[in-house]
């Protein structure tokens, strides 16, 4: 199964993003209000980076509360690791594990198509295993 299957029923308009000029305090409030762990960060309609809980924690540890007045562009993770819709789920999971990340932007033709989490991938994998188990049970019952 590939990433395209996971995002098939999603609209690009549903992606919660912020701009590089957004102040960190506002972005943190957005993370908390939406109960999400990361945001794709946009610059002129293109993906510029990812702003995550970890980015905030690292900066708070370094700078204290002053970091909350900076812009997301100042503290985001730039040059984000991305996948495309044809990436297999197991490849994306492996990438996340190796790189120790929990979110992946899905890029198609240079544009942000979706934003997936490790939870999306794990759920997809569990669903696939359950379907395979059911197919085996059905086969055994009819054999």
Describe this structure in words.
There is one protein chain. The protein has 6 helices and 6 strands. By secondary structure, the protein is an alpha+beta fold. The strands form 2 sheets. The protein has a 4-stranded mixed beta sheet. A two-stranded antiparallel sheet has the order 5-6. Strand 5 (103-108) and strand 6 form a beta hairpin. Helix 5 packs across helix 6. The chain is elongated, with a radius of gyration of 18 Å. The model has no long low-confidence stretch (mean pLDDT 93).
Q: What is the strand and helix layout of this fold?
A:
Layout: H1 3-7, E1 18-19, H2 24-34, E2 38-43, E3 46-52, H3 53-63, H4 72-75, E4 77-78, H5 89-99, E5 103-108, E6 111-117, H6 118-142
Parallel strand pairs: 1-2
Antiparallel strand pairs: 2-3, 3-4, 5-6
Helix pairs in contact: 5-6
Structural key phrases:
single chain, 143 residues, alpha+beta, four-stranded mixed β-sheet, two-stranded antiparallel ribbon, elongated
Spatial ordering of strands, largest sheet: 1-2-3-4
Q: State the shape.
A: elongated
Order of helices and strands: HEHEEHHEHEEH
* N-C termini distance: 27 Å
User: Which residues form runs of ≥5 with pLDDT under 50?
Assistant: none
In DSSP terms (H or I, runs of 4 or more residues), the helix count works out at: 6
Short description:
The protein is built from six helices and six strands; from the N terminus they run αβαββααβαββα. It is α+β, with helices and mostly antiparallel strands and about 140 residues long.
């Amino acid at each position: 199964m590939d990433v395209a299957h996971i995002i098939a029923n999603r609209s690009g308009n549903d992606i919660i993003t912020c701009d590089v000029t957004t102040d960190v305090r506002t972005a943190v409030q957005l993370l908390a209000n939406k109960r999400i762990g990361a945001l794709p960060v946009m610059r002129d309609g293109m993906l510029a980076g990812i702003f995550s809980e970890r980015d905030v924690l690292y900066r708070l540890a370094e700078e204290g509360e002053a970091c909350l007045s900076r812009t997301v562009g100042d503290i985001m993770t730039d040059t984000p690791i991305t996948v495309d819709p044809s990436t297999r789920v197991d490849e994306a999971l492996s990438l996340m594990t190796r790189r120790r990340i929990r979110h992946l932007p899905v890029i198609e033709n240079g544009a942000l198509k979706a934003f997936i989490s490790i939870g999306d991938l794990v759920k997809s994998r569990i669903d696939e295993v359950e379907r395979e188990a059911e197919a085996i049970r059905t086969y055994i019952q009819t054999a």
